[in-house]
Amino acid sequence: MRKAEQHYMSRVGWLRAAVLGANDGIVSTASLVLGVAAAGTSQTGILVAGVAGLVAGAMSMAAGEYVSVSSQADTERADLARERLELASEPDAEHTELAGIYVDRGLEPDLADQVARALTAHDALGAHARDELGISSVHTARPVQAAFASAGTFAVGAALPLLLALLLPRGWVTWGVALGSLVFLAALGAVSARTGGAPMGRGAARVTLWGALAMALTAGIGALFGVATA
Fold first, then answer.
1. Cα-flanking dihedrals φ and ψ of residue 117, to 5°?
2. Which residue of 85, 145, 148, 157 has the lowest C-beta tally within 10 Å?
3. Confidence (pLDDT) at 131
4. For every residue of the chain, which 3-state class applies, written as one string?
5. Contact 46, 173 (CB under 8 A)
6. Alpha carbon distance 214, 42 (integer Å)
7. Residues 210-225 pLDDT 10s
8. What confidence score (pLDDT) does residue 108 get?
């Protein structure tokens, strides 16, 4: 018996939102902690700022993902409604259009015509949605799924540098949070790459690089403000 093939495209919707949320949670919260720590804030103040950033960030990610993916879903529904109308009012033109798509993909005209007729008889709207519009069940926008995935992973990611800030002595917070967050980012990049079937080293490197840059810039700004207000 042939072994079922493993594909990763079915994970794209939730994986993108989850990686974005976790990455943003680690980077933004670690950067916030480093910025206020570099400005000379007390450990209590650091934790208060970090928790506020976690809550605000998680809600912002949920709202942003829901609104943006809902816009995509609205566009998909509008295109499908227009396609449904065209199939009802101009079936011959739609058949010619679908057959032309298959010719462009390499089929002979006669075979393309047969394929278009067979798929139209089976599910005309589904055939046009998939082959003309590029809409399929794998890529269909799911706003609620994206919102929960992004907000949940943001909260988890943000909790990691906050935990370090809570456990480490005040004098070690800056370096401890910075180094620990880089480790978290590298792990996130590797796991997300593995989940998506991509090289783990490349995924870890790109996530860590951008996270390090963000934390360095924020810590530098916090240090400047700390000196200016001293």
1. -65, -45
2. 85
3. 86
4. CCCCCCCCHHHHHHHHHHHHHHHHHHHHHHHHHHHHHHCCCCHHHHHHHHHHHHHHHHHHHHHHHHHHHHHHHHHHHHHHHHHHHHHHHCHHHHHHHHHHHHHHCCCCHHHHHHHHHHHHHHHHHHHHHHHCCCCCCCCCCCHHHHHHHHHHHHHHHHHHHHHHHHHCCHHHHHHHHHHHHHHHHHHHHHHHHHHCCCCHHHHHHHHHHHHHHHHHHHHHHHHHHHHHHC
5. yes
6. 22
7. 888 888 887 777 767 6
8. 92
- State whether the Cα torsion 203-206-209-210 is positive or negative: negative
The pLDDT confidence band at residue 36, using thresholds 50, 70 and 90, is confident
User: Domain coordinates of the chain in residue numbers?
Assistant: 9-79+144-229, 81-131
The identity of residue 72, as a single letter, is Q
